[in-house]
Structures are given as structure tokens and as C-alpha cells.
Amino acid sequence: MSDVVHQKWWGWGVEGVAFNPDNKPGFAPFVRKVIGIDVTGPAGSPPSFDELDVPASRLPDELGATLRRLVGDHQVTTDDMDRVVHTYGKGLRDLVRVRAGDLPRVPDVIVYPANEDEVRAVVDAVVGADAVLIPFGGGSNISGSLTPQADEDRTVVSLDLGRLNRVLEIDSDAGLARVQAGGLGPDLEEQLTERGWTMGHQPDSFKHSTLGGWIATRSSGMQSDKYGDIAEIVRGLTAVLPGKVLTLRPLPSTSTGPSVREMILGSEGRLGVITEAWVHVHRLPENREVIAYLFPNWAAGIAAMRDISVSDATPSITRVSDANETAFSLATRKESKGLSSKVGEGLFELLRRRGWDLEKVCISYIGYEGGSAKVRADKSEVGKIVGEHGGIKLGKGPGAMYDQKKFDTPYLRDFLLDRGALGDVSETAAPWSRLGEVYVSTVRAAKKAYEEVGVQGFIMCHLSHSYHSGACLYFTFAFPPREDTPELEQYDVVKSAIQQSFIDHGGTLSHHHGVGTDHAPWMEQDISEAGVDLMVGLLSSADPGRNLNPGTLLPPEREW
Amino acid sequence: MSDVVHQKWWGWGVEGVAFNPDNKPGFAPFVRKVIGIDVTGPAGSPPSFDELDVPASRLPDELGATLRRLVGDHQVTTDDMDRVVHTYGKGLRDLVRVRAGDLPRVPDVIVYPANEDEVRAVVDAVVGADAVLIPFGGGSNISGSLTPQADEDRTVVSLDLGRLNRVLEIDSDAGLARVQAGGLGPDLEEQLTERGWTMGHQPDSFKHSTLGGWIATRSSGMQSDKYGDIAEIVRGLTAVLPGKVLTLRPLPSTSTGPSVREMILGSEGRLGVITEAWVHVHRLPENREVIAYLFPNWAAGIAAMRDISVSDATPSITRVSDANETAFSLATRKESKGLSSKVGEGLFELLRRRGWDLEKVCISYIGYEGGSAKVRADKSEVGKIVGEHGGIKLGKGPGAMYDQKKFDTPYLRDFLLDRGALGDVSETAAPWSRLGEVYVSTVRAAKKAYEEVGVQGFIMCHLSHSYHSGACLYFTFAFPPREDTPELEQYDVVKSAIQQSFIDHGGTLSHHHGVGTDHAPWMEQDISEAGVDLMVGLLSSADPGRNLNPGTLLPPEREW
Fold first, then answer.
1. Per the CB < 8 Å rule, is A511 touching B253?
2. Which residues of B sit in the known binding site?
3. Cα(A356)–Cα(A296) distance, rounded to whole angstroms?
4. Which of these, A84, A104, A91, A189, lies nearest to A140 by C-alpha position?
5. pLDDT by residue (tens digit) across B450-476?
6. Which residues does this entry assign to the site Important for enzyme activity (chains A, B) (predicted)?
7. Is the ipTM of this complex over 0.90?
8. Please, which of A54, A105, A318, A378 could form a disulfide with A80 given CB 3.0 to 4.6 Å?
């Protein structure tokens, strides 16, 4: 068996790591208040794997023998656990279905190639056999990008890139590293930092997502204000296409027609398998700190982030949470740590006396990196802007807490599922001029959907990833479904309302989570029918037989 | 007749504006030294238009009538001058051929639509008649992107966007403007600056190129270090495709699969006609200055630019010329202005005493923009880095001179042609680690080509457009061709040697001039055969009949 480590088959992260409410006294009352459930009582738990009815592998002997010959017996498996792990990502739909044993189509075989040559051989064998190939990285996708189509009659091969996990070389002069696509965030970053470098790319999924997955879905990290989205970080790449290898050399910029690099970015496996990339790396910053601020309300926070984006300051992180998410943050703080000490000292009492409506307070985190002079100048400039919008500085303590907790949120889905509630996320990006409208309309759309479904729901939001012309709004929502209707039907009503609100108010269907099957219904509304036409032309000419991860990116009626 | 103003049919810029050597006493001796020709004697001049043998228009009556009905009689012309103006760009090959009356295929008709609806109607009529459509902006392309194929049997329609030249709206909150594609740089910038905004996009061709042309060729401006390449500046766009309109809404960033925006960027008319775009605009900077520096040699200058690119300083311009281009700059300065005053005061004598080899001196221009504190901090940081590499500050005077002369260089082609010499440019981008190699190899390749051809040639270079991982190197070369061989044959030897050197040493075929027909032979070497396969799939599925500017972007053997 391959020694590639996977996440839990039923949830986020590796076995034994989970959300822990015990040291967060404010959490249970908060959850009771916002979605009306009691999380202190006995919880359900994921089903036992043995209870699952896993469909048998349909791997034909001949293809199986070929794959074993190409990559070695131990790197090809039809083991049920491995196949279930490779069936779903970690979106809410995925988790509900896998917990319910809803497994209409499971990959027939998992292959773990060791290098590009083996990837080539496997791709050619799979396409040659008219089977379906689905590339698999960390398995953390939450848009439905890696699940076999339920009605897929052909053999389904999951190609796990987990063994391609090395930083191959660092070009110190150019600030570029050649990195294999299958490495998880922490593995890659460890190899870089031990030589004094960093990619600076930190998506929420950092611990369980790979470079190849980031590229294939157009990922963005929390520090994108400084380090850029993955589309900027990746300067060159290698991808295995059926019968050939695409090689884009590392270039700072180029004028060679329609960008092939930007065709592979976001391609979600439909053009081939990304095996390695040249990425920007940076020397570890001389100074790094995250400072927390409070704004009297959401509009003030957004306006401040916008002003920062056109100021001379260039922070590495700009983030502000709405009042609901701020309340959530306070509710998940550990006792007598971080914010609470200040709060305990009567900060909120002081703010109330200043006329703040404490129900509307919004917390913000701004990251600073660089030499002392730059950090000082940026802090001064940002401090001025925060003040102009009525905000105040909280300090480094809560900022450090943000850094510690920043990868923890995805565990909440599982915690809530064990307690009968559904939680998920949807994010968008829009011009600054439309963010207020996107926010208000989306919150309203979610509430209307909750009413329609007949549940007590919650939605919260933060702004992250500021650009010259706009920003990303990241929504998290949760509700306990009614028992008289299938829970995913209820979820779909809410999720669809949120997505439609994005599109209707100038936002995109996703800022950095990809299209998958979940967001594909909004593609024509987002990039126009003619845009989808161009994409169909590109994909269908490259993969006429629909062997490469079919079903993702496009609405079903646009498949060829 | 349409009132759209065009450049000279035979050269750069409008009638009456040309390179003037009279107030530059150092110029004639410099030219005599480097390419052995005397520019003080009587010069040739472009032929009279009447001497040209312009092939008659082959516009079928029916298509002509349709076009007149769609856009109005006065906006459709088969006038010979107008047709010749629309036959070529302004590359060296273009100018030599048009001056020689080499007109194998001239557009049969020029159409000047007033708006997107008319563009739609024209595109559909032209494609419906199986004619060829070539979009035309400022006509300043120098890669052969807008010339009809010599053997084109079908009707050729040149679609001039000159009447679509308005800034339609400015979104102040988002720093975005909706701008029509046919506006020339100065027109658009004037409409923006009168409202307090700027795009900051200043390619060498600024005065005679359009937004649509910038997008279609992946342009980059001198201030790209701050404002970005056009690919970053453009956030949304509208393009007319056969039978449909592509609409990409303005988004700061998005995760919607392979980027359709990045397919239109660089498409050089092969996917359709860009009619408008949403572009980044910025408030006019509080402070703006360009400061000149001197480095003891090229390697020191490059190393300093590289260090600046990873420092905390964020200048708007980073530029350094090699020794040859520095000598050229000194030779084209006006008497007792700018540099010369300092030079006159014995600066060079001082440097010589310090041990500088004055043959190797390199001039550099760094631009600063922003609030006083930022400009001060950037200047301080840059000054430190310049000093670390042995450079010295010259000051603002020469910097201001750079700003005045920055759009003048393209006129030199015509000046030299009138005096029997060929001059042109080739530019590339490569990682910092390979720039030295690209430079040395390219200079060597040019010299070898000059020897092979048997001429006295000159080549000079500057670095512009710095990125995290590399920079653009911009070469200018000139030589007087032998009389016993066709001059373009000689030019091709030199141009090909330079292009091949780029590719062989880690550079791209063009950083911002596009592919056209001139650079198409290097496409497979640059983006790999598989990359060209993807591009062919995209283009051929969108335009199976090859009606949209066929011949550009791809080597002929890759056309369908």
C-alpha cells in the first residue's frame, strides 16, 4: 500500500484532530442563540466504515494489470477505504453524502505514480482504455470537483499525486522554486522555510490541500494581498496531457497570445494532470505581525479596507468580519485569553460609553511584513485610515490569536453534523462599489431561504483578499435542517440563494473555491454564454472523449 | 469619409512630426561611429503615394451594400490611401515593404462602426459572407498582427475601431473605468485626467495605440511596475464574437475555470473584436518624479534592479540602459540641457578618477509616485541599493528629460530608412537568474548575424518592467544593409538570431509586442507543442472558417 496519508474518510483533517468546544465557554450559548441547537448534550458520530455499502470496483483486469506494471503493485489499490476517501471532497454535500453511505459511483482504482513519467504512462493508459481519470491532491475541494459522475459507466481511475511532494529546486536569484504538484501546504512550506524561503500561500485548507489543487482551482491564500493569488504565484508549469506534456517555462510576464498558463489554472483536471510548477518564493520576512482593530460597524470596516487598498500602505493581510462573525469569534475564544483580557477590562463598556452599538462591532485583522521602516510606515498609514472610519486598535494579542486559529474553521462542519446541523461556506469577489450591495442582498437572500425552508439559520461574513478594484467576501452559514425533508434539499435552497445573490449583484460565483459541479449552474450567468462557448471549445478539442474529470466546470447541458 | 485620424501611410506618427537631429550635435558622429553612415548629407524620402501601384478593391457589391447599410455610406471606404494605411503596422518589415510599394494584399474595404451594435452587425455580415475580418486600432503593431495574408482569396475587411474612443463611465469607489476599445492613449488619458484619474499605462506606442490593441497584444507600459501590465489593468471586457457578444463583468479576481479574460488578452483579433473594457484607474499621484542614476557597468545596474524588486521599495519605473544605449542617450541629448550640464561640469572626469571605465557606464531611471512619506522612503531604499552596487545619483534633471523624450524613439525607424539604414526592436522577459545570459547571448547573436550578413551593425538594450521573478530586456538594433542582397533578407537573419537567442536562454519571444506573424515561428519553442495544441483547439473551435484575422499567432503549418 502507498504510504500517502489521507484525511478522514468522513470529515476534515486527519483522525484525532477535531473542533474542541470544551475550552470555549461562550460557544454553546452562541450556537443555541443563533441556530437553536444544544451542543452540550450527547452528540451523534460518523457511521462506522463497516456499515457502508461500498460498490465493488469495476476495474477491468487488463487495465489493472497495465497500471500495476506502470507504477508497481503497491501503488495501485482497489481497497474500499482508499476508494471511499477518493470519492468526495469536503464540502457540505460531500460530508452529508459520505456519512449517509450515499456512494453511487466510487473510483474503481487509485493509482499513486512516483513521477512525471509514470503520470504520463498512466494518463495514456487510462485514456487509451477509454476510462475516466480524476486527479486527486489533498481531497479538500468543496465545490464538487473530484467526484465521479453518478451515471459514469466507464472505469473511473483516481490519480493520487501524493508521492510527488518535493521542492525540486530553488532559484535564489529569481525568487522561484520548482515544486511538485502533490505536496501538501505544510510539507512544501517546511522544505522552503528550512532554506529560508516561503511561498506565503495560506488558504484555509492549507494543511490538507496541494499545489496542484491550488492551481487547478485558482486558490488564494490569507496573505494574498502581499503574495498574490495562486494565478500570480505560478509562473511556469508542467502538465501531462493525453499523449503529450505541456511545458511552460518560468517567465515573469509574456506576450504569447491567449494565455495557456491561464488555461491550466482553474482547469480542475479537465485538460490534464499538473505535475509541477515554478512558483514565486520570498525570503522569510524580517518582521511579521498581525494587529487586530475594531470598527463600530461593517460599513466602516469595508470603507477602511477600501481606503487601505488605494493608500501607500501594502499590508499582507486585510480582513474584517461582520458583526455576526465578530460575535462568533468572541464566542470561540478560549477563557481568559486574547481578546477576553481586554474585554474583561471593560473595553466594551468604554466603547458603549463612546456611543458604539456593541451589537454592530466588527473585528479586523491587518498583517504587516517587511523591514522595520516599512512595517512602521504601513502601521501608521493604516492606523490613520482606521481612525478616519471610527475604528480603534486592539493590538497584537488578538492578532496572534488569529494566526493560531486560522486553519481551524473547516472542522466546524463535522462538529455541527454530529449535532444535526448543516454548515458551509460560499465566497465571492466584487468591485468595492458593489460590496455593500452584495453583502446586504446575500444576507437577505439567506434569511429568505431559511424562512422558505422553515429553519432557524445563521449567516456571517468577512472580507479578505483586497485588490485595487474590489475584494473577496467570504460567507459562512449554518442551520439545523427540518426532519421532514431531505437535508440536502434544504441546503440547496440556501446555497442556491446565496450563489444567485452573488451573481445578481456584481459578484462572481467563486473567488477561490473553483467551479466544480456545485457552482457550474452559474457559469453562463458569470462569464456569459459566449464565455462558456469558448471554454467548451477549448475543453472539447483537448479532450473529445471526455476522459478527463468530466462533469466539473460546465453545466451538464453544455457537455459534448 | 470617416474623420478618424491615422498615422502616416509610410511611417510612425502623424504627418509633420519626425525625429529631429539638428539640435542634437552628438547624434551624427555617434551614428557614423556605430553603423558607419553619414546622416548629415542629403537624405532620401518616402515615395510619393501616387507612385504606389495599389491593387484594386475586390469588395463584392453585395457585401459593400450591406456594410453601407449597417454603418452608413460615409463610414465605409474603398479609398486607396485608407486601404494602404490599413495594410501594415509599423514594424521594420512593414515600413520597408510599404515604402517599396510591396502590396500583395490590401484590405478591400475599411469600415468604421460607431458602436457595439454596429460592430456586431459588421462581424456577422463579414463572417456570413465568408470574408476575412481584421480589427484595426492605432495601426502601431510591430509584429505583423494586422496585415492580410498575401494569398488571401477572400474579401478582406478592415474594421477600424477609431470611432469607439470614449471613456463611458468611471466607478470612483472601485477605481475602474469603462472605456471603449478604439481610443488612442492620449485621448483616453485626457478624458481621465480631466476628472482626476489616470490609467498609468504608457507603452512606447502610447500616442498611436489603442486600448483594444493593448489588450489584443498584451501590452505593457513604462510604469508597469506600479500600474501593472494591461493583463492586470483589464478587469472586465466586452468582445463581439461571430453571432454573439462575450461579456466579462469587472471583477477583482475570480475562480471560474480556465480564464476567458486571459483568452481574449493576446488574441490579436482571432477570437473577435474587443469593443470596450473595464480598466483600473488611479487618482493622479500626489507626487511624481523620475530620478536618473549612473552605474559603473551593466551587471551592477541589473543587480540593483533585481534587489529593488525584492526590497520594500515599490517604484513606478525601474529602467537601466546598457553602455551602448547610454551612449546613444548621451548622443541624442540636446545641447546644454539635462545631463550635459552635469557632464559639462566634469562629472565624467570625476568618475574616471574614481576608477570607472566610462565606456561601460549605464544610465538608469527610477520613477517614484505617492505621498511624500512613501516617495521619501522609496528614494532612500533605492538610493541605498544603488550605492551597494557602486552607482551614483544623477538627479531629477535627467529624469525629467527621460519623461520628455519617452515617446520619441519609434520615429528613428523612418529617419534611418530615409538614410538607407534598417532599425528595429525586439524585447523579451526572463527570470532574474537568466537575464545576464540572455543579454550576453543576444548581443553575441546579433554580432554574429551582422558578420554573417557582412554589415556594420549596432545593438543596444535596456531593462524595463521589473517583476518579482524577472524583468523585460528591450533591444534596439540597426545596420545599413548591403546593396547586393534584398534588405529584408538581411534583416531576417539578424531578427531571427535575436529571437532564437531569447528562446534558447530562458526568455520569451515577446514581453509585450505580441506574436503576429513575425514571432509565430517561435511559438512551439516558447509554450511547447502541447501549448500550441491547446491554442489551436481554442481558436479553431471558435472560428472554424478562419474568418477572424487568420495568419497571426500561429505558425502557418498549425493553421486548420
1. yes
2. 204-210, 217-220, 268-274, 413
3. 6
4. A91
5. 999 999 999 999 999 999 999 999 999
6. 319
7. yes
8. A54
